[in-house]
Amino acid sequence: MPSLPDKADLKRELASLLTRDLDKLEGAYRATREGATHEEAKPENDKDTRALEQSYLARGQALRIEELRTGLVEVESMTLRAFGPEAPAAMGALVTVLQDDVTSLMFLAPHGGGTRIAAGTVQVVTPRSPLGLALLGKRAGDDGVVTVAGKVRELSIVSVQ
């Protein structure tokens, strides 16, 4: 079995990706907000809702920005520790999972679920997801079942690092 990626590197990469996403979204938010308040966005008649629609979009972007900021802080403050051979999976664990004869690496993190890091070899999983919930508390040798998109998947936990 190839060596596992360093969890500190995974954490840094995830934080970097979240920072990049946050920067992009903040730029889009500024542009949307300017568009909503620009002189040319004033309604031409009572049926013209362009400015209102842009303000709704800007509000949604502002909420997403706050969510990303919180997620970034949570990832950056996440404690990484070594997990012994009998330790249950918890936040910060790198879990090796066997499913349908395919081995996958899952990094349990508070934010960034679905993101692939380490050149695509590691999937970030959050405890809010069905997969994350299925992995939390599991130990090497445990089996689990998770339903994702209506499909039942059986998992075997190979290791928790």
Please give a structural write-up:
This protein is of the alpha+beta class and 161 residues long. The chain folds into two domains: 7-77; 94-160, Chitinase A, domain 3 (Roll), CATH 3.10.50. It has three helices and six strands, in the order H-H-E-E-E-E-H-E-E. The protein has a six-stranded mixed sheet with strand order 3-4-2-1-6-5. Strand 5 and strand 6 form a beta hairpin. The radius of gyration is 20 Å and the shape is elongated. The protein starts with 6 loop residues before the first helix and ends with a strand. The mean pLDDT is 90.
Count of beta strands: 6
Give the domain tally: 2
The largest sheet, given as strand count, sense and whether it forms a barrel, is: 6 strands, mixed
Low-confidence stretches: none
Walk across the major sheet and give the strand order.
3-4-2-1-6-5
Q: Tell me the span between the first and last alpha carbons.
A: 14 Å
> How are helices and strands ordered from N to C?
HHEEEEHEE
Shape: elongated
Radius of gyration equals 20 Å
The chain-level structural class is alpha+beta
**Mean pLDDT figure:** 90
Total number of helices? 3
Oligomer: single chain
Strand content: 15-25%
**Approximately how much helix is present in the residues?**
40-55%
